[in-house]
Amino acid sequence: MRKMKQKFFGFRGSVTPSSVIQDLSEEWEQDGISFSVKDEVFKAKYFNKSEEEKALLIANLFIKTWNFKHNTRLTVNFNHFWGLKEGGGVAHNLILSDTVKVTDRVITTRAITHRLSFEVKARIVGKSDSASFLANQLLVEKSLKDKSLKEALEFYSEEVVDEKRPLYGVYKALEVLIEKLRNGGKKEVGMEVLGKLAGKNKKYIEEVKQRTQLQRHAVTSAKSILSEQECRDRAKLLIEAYANSI
């Protein structure tokens, strides 16, 4: 039996609020990097130091897509890194600093612990868990290939879910998708295409943009039509429709 090569490099961080993923235990692999969530700790392992940047990118995308799907903000403090030293042995680096925020509003959820088995990509065995990070793997894979989707998810996760500047986040998230879909044409073209992807018309998006204009400008002639929550809901629907189209 051939011995599997061990991954000696990695990092880990605590998930906050831990109550959101309490009792969650899962393992999966993405682009050759192993990830796991257990005991409220998010961990990544890889073969070489050169993979660290990619591992952090993917880990953050899993967290941001989780926030997007749950409308709940998670914070992960990736402050413990390790790797092989020259001459042998493993060096550990513990960073004592403020929490690295990748995107604390607690939701109530009943987590079901499950194990995963995988060859190249993981598959959930048994019942699905609503708190699962792996459940968003397809969305993460699409984000890695599509810059506009990645940026839209980042704006939504960091601004809308975080509630710092929700309408600004909605505006920026939709702008990157409209810019992509207008394909060199006018913005109206991009709005029309994006609306059709969600089974809506251009006005559906124009109303959101009109509402966000109230927050972006101190003086404006725009009239408020939608509530802030309606803008959030529409933005999420449009982002999901775009993701489903690619």
What does the model show?
- The chain is an alpha+beta fold and 246 residues long.
- The protein folds into 2 domains: 9-135, no CATH class; 147-245, no CATH class.
- It is built from 7 helices and 8 strands; from the N terminus they run ββββαββββαααααα.
- The strands form 2 sheets. A 6-stranded antiparallel sheet has the order 2-3-4-1-5-6, covered by helices on one side. It has a two-stranded antiparallel sheet with strand order 7-8.
- A hairpin with a 5-residue loop joins β5 and β6.
- It is elongated.
- It starts with 8 loop residues before the first strand and ends with a helix.
- Mean pLDDT is 83; it is low at 99-128 and 217-222.
Domain module count: 2
First-to-last CA distance: 41 Å
| Main β-sheet description | 6 strands, antiparallel
* Secondary structure: helix percent: 40-55%
User: What is the number of E strands?
Assistant: 8
Overall SS class: alpha+beta
Task: Compute the number of helices.
Answer: 7
Q: DSSP strand (E) fraction?
A: 15-25%
Topology pattern, helix = H, strand = E: EEEEHEEEEHHHHHH
- In one word, what is the shape? elongated
Strand order of the largest sheet: 2-3-4-1-5-6
| Overall residue-averaged pLDDT value | 83
Any low-confidence stretches, pLDDT <50, length ≥5? 99-128, 217-222
What radius of gyration results from the CA coordinates? 20 Å
Short characterization:
With about 250 residues, this protein is an alpha+beta fold. It has seven helices and eight strands; from the N terminus they run ββββαββββαααααα. About 40% of the residues lie in helices and about 20% in strands.
